[in-house]
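User: Assemble these into one structure.

Assistant: Restating your components, then the assembled model:
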Amino acid sequence: MTLLGSIGSAVFGRWLATTGLIWLALVAISAVAAPLIAPFDPLEINPIERLSEPAPPYLFGTDHFGRDTFSRAVYGARMASIIGCGSVLVALFAGGLCGMLSAYFPQLGHVLMRVVDVLMAFPALLLALVLMTLLERSVINTVIVIGIVYAATTARILYGMTLKLKGEVFVDAAICTGAGHSSVLLRHIFPNLISPLLVQASFVFAFSQLQAAALDFLGLGLPPEVPSWGNMLAEERIYITRAPWLLIFPGALIILTVFSLNLVGDAIRDAIDPRFRGDIAGV
Amino acid sequence: MPLLDVSELEISVHSTGGDIAVVKGVSFQVNKSGTIGIVGESGCGKSLTSLAIMGLLDGSQARTTGGTVRFEGTELLGLTMRERRKIMGNQMSMIFQEPMTSLNPVYRVGDQIAEALRQHRSLTRKAARERAIELLRMVRIPRPDERIDCFPHQLSGGQRQRVMVAIAIACEPKLLIADEPTTALDVTVQKEILGLLRDLQEQTGMAVVLISHDLGVVAETCDFVAIMYRGKIVETGRAEDVFSSVAHPYTRGLLNSIPPVDRDVEVLNEIPGRVPSIEQNVPGCSFHSRCTIAAGICREIDPEFSTVSGKHEVRCHFALGSNNRAE
Amino acid sequence: MLTLLPTLAAASFLVFLFIHLIPGDPAAILLGDAATPEAAAALSKELGLDEPLLKQYALWLGNVAQGDLGTSIFFQQPVLSVIGDGAETSILLAVMTMFWIIAFGVPVGVISAIRRGSWIDQISSGGAMLFASVPTFWLGLYLIHIFSVGLGWFPSSGFPSISDDGGLANLRYLLLPSLTLAAPNAALIIRLVRASMLDVSREDYVRTARAKGLHPARVAVRHVFRNALIAVAAAFGFTFAALVSEAVVTETVFSLPGIGRLVVQSILRRDYPVIQGVVLVVVVLYMAVNLLVDLAYASLDPRVSLN
C-alpha cells in the first residue's frame, strides 16, 4: 500500500477521525475564502447593534463594539490557519533538519542536541512568554516564537528516529553501494520519516492553537485588533454573563479544531511504523 | 484414561471477513509421563493449540470454537476461568519460546518462582524461598542461593529459560507444555535444556507436550509425534513408526529439508512453494498446492485419516501403497 | 546527572542574557523608567556592566548564589522576596493539582486499558482527548461562571494565605483553579497510562504471569501496571513543565497571587528583574524535577543504573 493510501485508510477507517478531517477542511475553506464567506467586515464597528443576540443577519451575535461575531470567527479561521501552518513550518523545518543532521553526523549532533537540551529546560509557554517580551506583538513574531518552542521537541523526536533508522541494514547497504551523505539522508532515511513527521505536524498544529490562544488571552500574542479566536475570547471575557455567545462560539471553534487535529494525528500515529509510535508524545 | 485428551479441537481468529478457523479437527492424546511432539512450520496452528490447552487464548484475537480438551477426565473448555486458574501453573504449566522476554524485568527471579508457588500452595515466604532455591538447583543453575536474588537481565538466555522451567515445575505439574523452548537459544544450550527437560521428566513423571518446528529435536525427545500443516494434523503416530516409514509427503519434505550432518550437500531439498495464506480457502487436501504427488482427487476431496500401522495414521490419498507411482 | 550541569549553566546564561537582549542600556532597564543617570551609573558599576560579558555573568551568578536576584522595579523590593510572596499560592496550587491528576488520571487510565474497547474505554479515552483540546483559560472562565457566579459554591478569585483567618478552609479558593489546571494534564496522564498499560500487556512476561494461574487483578496490578509505571514516571517531568505553563494562565484567570500571575504582570509592567528571577527559579526547579524523575526511573527499573 502506498504511504498516502495507508494514511488515508487509517483516517477514514474511523468515523471520528473522518469527522475531524471534514471539520479541518471547513476551517481551511473559511481561511482561504474568508472575504467571500463573511457577511460583514470583521473590523466594522456598529455601536447601535452592540451585544446583539445570535439571530439573522448576525448568526453568532455581535460583540461590545457591534462587530459581527460570525465574520470575525471566519477571519479567525484564517488567523488559526496562518499560526498553525507557520508554526508547523518553522518547527518541522528547523527542528526536523536539526534532529536529522544531529543523528546522522554525531559530532554536529553533540553540539546541536545540547542547544536543544537548553531550549527544553524552559517550559513551553514560559519560553514563549519571555521571547514575546523581547519582540513586538505581531503575527509573524507569534509564529516564530511558537515555532521555536516546538522546534526543540521536534528535533528531539527526529533525532531518536533517525538514530534508529541509521542502525538499519538498508542504510548500511546504501552506504556500502557508495551512496553519498545527501543521497542516504534524502533517499533512504527521509522517506521513512514522512509519516512520523505528519503525525508531529498535526500535534504541533494543535498545540500551536492552544499556545496562541493562551498568549492572546494574556495580552502577549497577536495585536489586539487582529480578529483571532484567542483575541475574541480575551476581549469579551467580561461579557460571559451578559452575552454568553461571545465566549461559546470562539471557544467551541478552538476546541473543535484542536480536537480534530488530535483525532487525525492519533489515527495516523496508529498507522505508522510501530517502532516510532511511542516516540511522538501527542495527546 | 489418557492424561490429556484433545478431540476435534477447533480454534478461530477474528478477521474483517468474519471468523476463520485456523486449527481444525485436531485430536491427540498424551498418556501419563508420555511425551508428544507437535511439529509444523510457523503459522500452522501448533502454538495456538498449546495456548488453547493451557487456557491462555485471551479471546480478543483467537478463541476455541469447537472440540474438547479433557485433562484427567475433566473437560477444560467448559470450566470457568476461576476453575481453570486452579489448574494453570499447578497441574499443568507451560514454558515459552522467548526466555529473554518471558520473565518480568522488575522482579527478582526468586520472587517470580515464589509467586507461582504461593499461588497454589500455602507456603510461608521463607518456605517458598527455600523451595525456590531447591528448584533452581533442580534446573542446574549454579550457586542457586545467590542467583535467586538476581534480576532477569543479570542472567543469560539459557539461564533465564532454566528459571522459566523452574517456575513451570514449581508445583509439580502432571503436564508441561513447552512451546519451542529452545528455538531462541544457541545449539549447545538447546541440548542442555532438552536434556534437562528429559531428566526432570524421569524424576517427576510429568508428561510433556513439546511444540517445535524441528523434527530432529522431536525425534530425539518424543515417543509420540503429530505433524501439523495449515491447522490440521496430517500424520501422527509413535515416533519410531513415523520416522521409520514416513507416509505423508509433507513429513517427507520436512525430513528431507534437514541438512545431513555426516556429509556436505550442494542443495538443500526444500518443500516447493509457500503455505497458502490463512484467509485463503483451499479445497481438497490443504497441501496439494505444494505436493509433488498431488492428483485430481487431492484438489477436490480432503483426505480422512487412514491407518498405516498400529497407531500410525496419515491424511493422504496416496499414502498407502498407491503412492509408489510417484517414486 | 552530570549532563544536567552544563545544561543548567547554559540555560542560566540565557536567562542572564535576557536583560542584554532588551534594546537599551541594561542599567536603565534594571532600574526602570524612573532611573536617574547617577543611579544607573552606580548600578552599572555594581554589576560590572562595562566589563566583558562572561565576567558580568560570573558576577551575576555569584549574586544569585547568595540569593540576590536583583531588585523589582515595581515593588522596590528584592526579587527573591517578591517571588517568595507568590510561592505559597503556587506551591499549594501545584500540590492540589497533582493530587487531582494522580487521583483521576491513573485509575481512569488503568480501567480504560483493562476494559479496552468497551464503552467505558471509549468515553474515557475520547473524553480525555477532548479535555486535552480545551484552552485552560476558557475552562477556567466557565467554571467561575457556573460554580462561583451562578451557584455561588466557591469564591471566584484571589487566595488569602492559609496562615490568615480561615486557615486550611482557604484552600476552597484553590479548588476550581486546581481542577482547571488538572483537566488537560489528567487527560494526558489517562492516555499515557492507558497506552503504556496496553503496550506492557502484550509483553511475554504478562503471559508468563497468566500461565501461573494468577488472578487477573493481580496480573494487572503487579505485572502490567508495575511496568507501565516506568513510562508514566518518565512523563511526570513533562507534566511539571505543562503545569508551570498552564499555571501562568490559570492564576491569571482566577486572580491568584502566585508566581504565574506575577510573571504576566511583570511582563506588562516591564519589571524585567522579576521576569528574569522567576524564569531562573522555574528553570532550576524544572531541572530538579527532571533529576527526581531520573531517580524515580532508576528505582522503578532495575535495568537502569544511574552510573
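Chain C has a mean pLDDT of 85.
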